[in-house]
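Q: How would the structure tokens look for this protein?
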Amino acid sequence: MSNNSSLPDGALPRVPVIGVQESLVTIDVSGVPIMKNEVGYILVGNERLKAEVLRVQGNTADMQVFEDTSGVKIGDEVELSGEMLSVALGPGLLAQVFDGLQMPLTALADSHGFFLPRGVEVDALDHSRKWKFEPSAKVGASLVAGQVLGTVAEGPFSHKIMVPFNELEPVEVTWIRGGSFTVEEPVARIRRADGVERELTMMQRWAIREPIPRAMIRKRLVERLYPTDPITTTQRIIDTFLPIARGGTGCIPGPFGAGKTVLQSLIARHSTIDIVIIIACGERAGEVVETIKEYPETEDPRTGRSLMDRTIIICNTSSMPVAARESSIYTGLTLAEYYRQMGFHVLCIADSTSRWAQAMRETSGRMEEIPGEEAFPAYLDSSIRNVYERAGVLRTADGDIGSVTLIGTVSPAGGNFEEPVTQATLSTVKTFLGLSSERAYRRYYPAIDPLISWSRYLGQLEGWFSEHLGDDWVAMVQEVQQLLVDGDAIYRMMQVTGEEGISLEDYVKWQKSVLVDMVYLQQDAYDKVDSSMSRERQTDSFRLLKSLVDKGYGFNDRETAREVFTKLTSLYKNWNYSAPDSAEYHRYRKDIVELAERHKGGPERRAAERAPDSEA
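A: Here is the predicted structure in token form.
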């Protein structure tokens, strides 16, 4: 039994351990106030093992431990902090690599080497570094949560220092100063309506499982907006056929070796967003190390600086504790929401949510909860939905517009998209980029299967597409999507009957669908030009391609059709590899148009011309 009735002022309550099951520890909390998600520290000799309360039942509570529990035994003391699992928010987050609990891995390695001892904690933000704070609020100003007190320069961005997000009622600024300060030094003082004053620093803390804007939305201090425009990823198949809204959600499920890592790297590097947050949740250490090495050395195509300058990496590999893996997604999302409050557009990539769900399954099993399908917890659907609902567009208290776009990769065993995590994700997100092992085997990259993938944003953002790309854009895209479906059906028929078993007209239609696949859906990630195509060039390319597949050709036999479309494919690929406005660019485009013109007409076109008369 715990006895904390005579604690001195400021002392934290301590309770005993009464059960240990791998990373799950049960404690006796008789007579001690405790809350779910509260942080506690298991005291093992000189070590303090961080843990989080998962469940409270009567006089006992279950905690998941974020460290190896070797040596923890019944009777050991647990010190309760009275605080929920939280992260530090302030300048100095960008260009950092954190673990799932927001401990900077570089600082940990510098102070303790590459093999980290148990129970070590390091401040997420450098408390010795000084930042030049430029105040924008005046003494006497009345502010609310999320409004700006001043700014500091952080990399290429102006980092806003805001009124703490839990100050939901108006406060008065009674004192503010400019100059160079650490994140711990006070820069302002505010007074609440009840006369209580509070000193503010450039850093605040926030519980990771509580969305930052939730209480502010209820108070109508901020406003959640409907996504109205897409992000440009510069990947043709995504931007044209499977768009993702700015502030929207998407998922990339696919089997091992289908190119998820390369695709998410291209999206992070080239998308029209301000800040990238990569959450490496339970992935293999080799892939994570490659990301950590690649980003600092990669030039940001938007700023010309290192891509890492506007990136945060949350690194929690499969070799790290399961409990920390489960918390890493919430850590990354909280950082994304923080920058959204400043009016930035943030892209959050979670790789992979399958490993996160598996961590939940392990913890749920140890807690002996009733399992759902494939032993995942019964609340798997709601947990996935709660994660993706933290994405969105927000009008902040200062009137700025910020967004969090969330893309989660899913790694279903054997590429089985019917398993629970994939299905729960598909019921939540609005863009599904399904990777195909068959396309990857053929070296069709990105290996997104256009026949199973979909995006609800193509219709929802029709107004944006009509305004910026033309009133006919969505209709054209849908026509080409139908061509791909028809071409696949013809190809399957050919597998049974051979080429001679289908009409020449169907054979030409199949060749048109193959042309679309070869020259537009596929993109060379390692070519300097083709790896990234601007929205303007995509629009020009797609309209040219649409004119080619709409054209009637006068072929007399399949061999001629095959030769012409092979030449068109070769010319079009060379055009894709040509730098914009170069001599090669204009030459290849001219050759494509001339080749198509030489073979236009014939039975296919005459049949199309007769169709209106026959209907009449």
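The CA atoms of residues 9 and 81 lie 14 Å apart.

The longest helix spans residues 473-497.

Upvote if useful.
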